[in-house]
Amino acid sequence: MSIPSIAIDPSIFREALGHFASGIAVITSHMDDEPIGFTCQSFYSVSMSPPLVSFSVMSSSASYPRIRQAGRFAVNILSDEQIMICNQFARRGTDKWYGIEWQYSPLGNPIITGSLHWLDCEIHAEHAAGDHLIVIGEVKALNLLEATATQPLLYFKGQYCNLASHCVT
Question: What CATH number did the domain enclosing 54 receive?
Answer without folding.
Answer: 2.30.110.10
